[in-house]
């Protein structure tokens, strides 16, 4: 098992933590990362697109003109698809774009994403993160202490002050440990975990073979 240094939010070393290799040292499976990101983005689509079919448009109560004598092709309704203002055919219907991925594959992809950040040296573990009051400058100062760029911060319990302090910082996401997902890990270049978050993630994903 790999050991990582644990810092406080002022970038001062306060101890070490042993990481579970089954979670933070797993093989990186790129095909699973790709599949899970596709699933997450697909599930976010509203899928509310629709068109009016011939049953939905107005009009069509009677023939638009008499059957014979006009020199035109006979028509039965103005709601037909080939008529101006008629219903559309083969248009989009409301649908869900979500698709299924097995739970084991989802968990394996999450381990792969975490292990990828560890292998890149982009994982930072801090003892805890808290602020006396909501203050964006305090959060930005913490990021500067660690030299962080686009960052995902994962905490076991996201406090109100931390949430409000980070809300206006661009390219920063703060989520609870039980909301950890592949897309957010890969979207941000740096990953910051609190010690409690590491324990929660290990309990959730550990023990894999």
For the terminal residues, how far apart are their CA atoms?
A: 14 Å
CATH superfamily of the largest domain: Ribosomal protein L4/L1
Please compute the radius of gyration using only Cα atoms. Answer: 27 Å
In sequence order, what are the helices and strands, one letter per element?
EEHHHEHEHEHEH
SS summary, helix count: 7
* Total domain units: 2
- Which segments are poorly predicted (pLDDT under 50) over 5 or more consecutive residues? none
Largest sheet descriptor: 6 strands, mixed
According to CATH, the fold-level topology of the largest domain is Ribosomal Protein L4, Chain: A
- So what's the oligomer here? single chain
Q: How much beta, percentage-wise? A: 5-15%
Mean pLDDT across every amino acid position:
94
Please state the structural category: alpha/beta
Q: Just give the CATH class of the largest domain.
A: Alpha Beta
Corresponding CATH architecture of the largest domain: 3-Layer(aba) Sandwich
Helix content percent band? 25-40%
The global form is elongated
Q: Give the number of DSSP strands.
A: 6
**Largest sheet, order of strands side by side?**
2-1-3-6-4-5
Describe this structure in words.
With 209 residues, this protein is of the alpha/beta class. It folds into 2 domains: 150 residues, Ribosomal protein L4/L1 (Ribosomal Protein L4, Chain: A, 3-Layer(aba) Sandwich); 41 residues, no CATH class. The chain contains 7 helices and 6 strands, in the order E-E-H-H-H-E-H-E-H-E-H-E-H. Strands 2-1-3-6-4-5 form a 6-stranded mixed β-sheet. Helix 2 packs across helix 3 and helix 4 packs across helix 5. The chain is elongated. The two termini are 14 Å apart.
């Amino acid at each position: 098992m790999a050991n990582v240094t644990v810092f406080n939010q002022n970038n001062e070393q306060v101890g070490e933590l042993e990481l579970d290799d089954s979670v933070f040292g797993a093989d990186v499976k790129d095909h699973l990362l790709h599949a899970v990101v596709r699933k997450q983005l697909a599930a976010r689509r509203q899928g509310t697109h629709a068109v009016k079919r011939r049953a939905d448009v107005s009009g069509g109560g009677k023939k638009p003109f008499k059957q014979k004598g006009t020199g035109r092709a006979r028509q039965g309704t103005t709601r037909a698809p080939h008529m101006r203002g008629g219903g559309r055919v083969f248009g989009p219907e409301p649908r869900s774009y979500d698709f299924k991925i097995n739970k084991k594959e989802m968990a394996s992809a999450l381990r792969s994403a975490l292990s990828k950040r560890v292998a890149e040296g982009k994982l930072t573990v801090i003892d805890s993160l808290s602020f006396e009051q909501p203050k964006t400058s305090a959060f930005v100062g913490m990021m500067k202490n660690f030299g962080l760029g686009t960052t995902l911060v994962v905490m076991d319990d996201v406090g109100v002050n931390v949430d409000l302090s980070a809300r206006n910082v661009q390219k920063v996401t703060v989520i609870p440990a039980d909301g950890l997902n592949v897309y957010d890990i890969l979207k941000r270049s740096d990953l910051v975990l609190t010690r409690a978050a590491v324990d929660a993630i290990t309990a959730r994903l550990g023990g894999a073979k």
